[in-house]
Design brief:
Blueprint: H1 23-48, H2 52-55, H3 61-71, H4 84-101, H5 103-122, H6 125-131, E1 136-139, H7 154-157, E2 168-172, E3 176-182, E4 195-203, E5 217-223, E6 229-231, E7 248-256, E8 260-262, H8 267-301, E9 305-306, E10 309-310, H9 315-344, H10 350-374, H11 386-395, H12 403-421
Parallel strand pairs: 1-4, 2-4
Antiparallel strand pairs: 2-3, 3-7, 4-5, 5-8, 6-7, 9-10
The chain binds flavin-adenine dinucleotide.
Flavin-adenine dinucleotide binds near residues 139, 240 and 402.
């Protein structure tokens, strides 16, 4: 007589097919998941339905979120002091959960902490004190300088051209940095931020361009409550509505030169480093958001009956679930690979990170669309949060670099590696 042994179901983590999360990682995931479910989801949905003039006003759910995040200890760097590979893993777990909770609020938190993080890295105590506990923003794009700000090696790629200096520049004097112009309307936290990390073109006394036509750049910390700073109205937009966005205007705004953390010679490298880390965070947020959408569809097909059966029991549904589930895992795997390379490689590069961001976000879009499709008509209604996820996912196709353009930059990088390093020649 032979006994029949069935294959047991796999042991999966709440986040998917993760093997070997250690105790700290498991506890972190569980803690963050509680915060994402109990704080971020309800507040994010509430803000999403408010008009922009009410959504970020004092006492609004937006500020309630930031107070709760501060209470939960989410304002610092959870990975400080860890070896790079462990830091990459833990950061992925944290940001994935925040993306699962609310992708807009996750960015508000990340951009909000950027000036403090950069001040910390600079070791300048005055800047650390200036940024500590303040809501920050990253002020980089401008009305006439969107994708152009993300183009490295511009003069090699487009010989004879002059790089775009945009609508907001810094002028360095012996003791001061002076800002004039305006940001784009897309600066995350722009309407409410207390401090900015400026990431713009600069003149060090020899004009804005070098002999080849490349621009000089700078990173400077600027408090936003000083003379000459004003704001535009918070933007009304399709997706990521819990994330306030708007212009910041600079009219002869002056800060001491010691507030600069990257100048003429070290700017390019520091900019590349910061952008690579931003792209990594975007990939993790996409991964969390994709999981959120998939889970909503998974729950729905276990409630809805059509064709004489639960949708989940129909083979076509199983096939579709398998497709979305695979994409969710692929996004997660790419986000982890990007994170590991960015944190651990001897020489990381923002164009690889950018490619990862583009892959994660474009697959995210397919996951959310197909998840909504599985829910039929109700997926379109405000009653179910999946229509919000679709709008949030759409914003991520453009945020931190438009996907097609990022993929083009990656292709250029691969070609350069082939030509200059002999990479890929077998
Ligand atoms: C949700 C969100 C959050 C953001 N947060 C911030 C922030 O915190 N700080 C900040 O400074 N900015 C922020 N941005 C701005 C963001 O970085 C820009 O929107 C993005 O880089 C694209 O720039 P753009 O919108 O000006 O589009 P454009 O650069 O005008 O691009 C328009 C279209 O033209 C294409 N295109 C552009 N250049 C080329 C080219 N050379 N060849 C072929 N096609 C091209 C693009 O692919 C795109 O499809 C945010 C944007 C969003 C949506």
């Amino acid at each position: 007589m032979s006994s029949h042994i069935t294959v047991p179901l796999p042991s999966v983590a709440p986040t998917g097919f993760d093997a070997g999360l250690n105790e700290v990682e498991t506890a972190t995931q569980q803690g963050l998941h509680r915060f994402a479910r109990e704080v971020m989801r309800p507040l994010g949905r509430e803000i999403d339905r408010l008009t922009a003039d009410k959504a970020y006003a004092p006492g609004s759910p937006f500020w309630q979120f930031h107070a709760e995040a501060m209470k939960a200890g989410l304002s610092g760097d959870a990975t400080a002091g860890l070896p790079p590979d462990q830091a990459a893993r833990l950061e992925g777990i944290v940001i994935n959960e925040l993306g699962w909770g609310d992708a807009g609020l996750a960015v508000s938190l990340g951009a909000g902490g950027l000036p403090a993080l950069m001040a910390q890295a600079s070791g300048n105590q005055e800047l650390i004190d200036l940024t500590l506990g303040k809501l920050g923003c990253w002020c980089a794009t401008q009305p006439d300088r969107g994708s152009d700000g993300l183009t490295l090696y511009a003069q090699e790629r487009f010989p004879g051209s002059k790089a775009n200096k945009g609508n907001l520049q810094a002028t360095f004097t012996k003791d001061e940095v002076i800002f004039n112009g305006q940001s784009s309307a897309w600066v995350s936290n722009g309407p409410v931020a207390q401090v900015a990390l400026m990431d713009i073109v600069a003149d060090y006394g020899e004009g804005f361009h070098d002999a080849q036509g490349n621009t000089f750049g700078c990173n400077v910390i600027v408090p936003l409550d000083i003379k000459g700073v004003s704001r535009g109205k918070p933007l009304e937009k399709l997706g990521k509505r819990p994330l306030p966005q708007g212009e910041i205007f600079f009219d002869n705004v002056r800060v001491p030169r010691r507030f600069a953390i990257a100048t003429r010679d070290d700017y390019e490298l520091k900019h590349a480093h910061a952008w690579a880390h931003a792209g990594t965070a975007m990939s993790h947020i996409a991964s969390g958001l994709a999981r959120a959408a998939f889970e909503m569809a998974l729950a729905y097909v276990h409630e809805r009956r059509q064709g004489g059966a639960l949708l989940a029991d129909l083979q076509l549904t199983q096939y579709r679930l398998g497709g979305i589930g695979t994409q969710v895992e692929a996004i997660r795997a790419m986000a982890d690979r990007v994170a590991r390379f960015t944190k651990c490689a001897a020489q990381p590069h923002p164009y690889f990170t950018a490619a990862g961001k583009a892959f994660c976000c474009s697959n995210l879009m397919q996951v959310v669309r197909e998840s909504l499709q599985l829910m039929g008509g109700v997926g379109l209604t405000h009653e179910f949060p999946i229509e919000k996820l679709l709008r949030d996912a759409q914003a991520m196709q453009i945020e931190d670099g438009e996907n097609h353009l990022l993929q083009m930059h990656y292709g250029y990088l691969l070609s350069r590696l082939y030509q200059q390093e002999g990479w890929g020649r077998g």
